[in-house]
Amino acid sequence: MRDGYVARWRGREYEASPDGDNVRIYQPGPGDDFEPVRPGRFVRVLPLAEFEDVAYVRTTCTWKGEPFIVLAEHDTWLRVEYTGGRWPVAQALGLEEFDFGVYQGWAPASEVTDLREHRV
Predict the structure, then answer these.
(1) Both 61 and 115 in a single domain?
(2) Which among 45, 48, 60, 76 counts the fewest CB atoms within 10 Å?
(3) How far apart, in Å, do the first and last CA atoms of the chain sit?
(4) What backbone torsions phi and psi does residue 94 show, to the nearest 5 degrees?
(5) 65-118 pLDDT, tens per residue?
(6) Strand (E) positions, the chain?
């Protein structure tokens, strides 16, 4: 499940982090002048103009008939954030109030439907 920036460089898509006129791209191993950040994570910073595409990718789904964003995945569970905007529904689903008006919880992946990736 993806939720974050991606950038296409030399025909390959990377996890990315835009920063002004530059973009940091990441990969799990060394190569192509990538510098180590920590074991299993390497970064390279390039000017925005060098990229074929930079976009934000968000995964959405439906759980118990309600709309959600998928934030993470762990084993057979998905970390989801409710986007329906109705407090009584969030409460009935047993979601935690992560921030004011922001409700999150863990949903069994087997109960989630309509998984879709959106590029912005």
Answers:
(1) yes
(2) 76
(3) 16
(4) 75, 30
(5) 999 999 999 999 999 999 999 999 999 999 999 999 999 999 999 999 999 999
(6) 3-9, 12-19, 22-27, 35-38, 41-47, 53-63, 66-74, 77-82, 96-99, 102-108, 112-119
DSSP state string for 74-102: ETTEEEEEE-S--HHHHHHTT-EEEETTE
Same domain as 78, residue 40: no
**85 shares its domain with 110:** yes
* Block residue for tokens 């969030």: 90
Residue 36 to residues 28, 62, 116, Cα–Cα distance (Å): 9, 38, 32
- Owning domain of residue 17: 4-51
| Whole-number pLDDT of residue 109 | 97
**Look-up: residue for tokens 């530059």?**
22
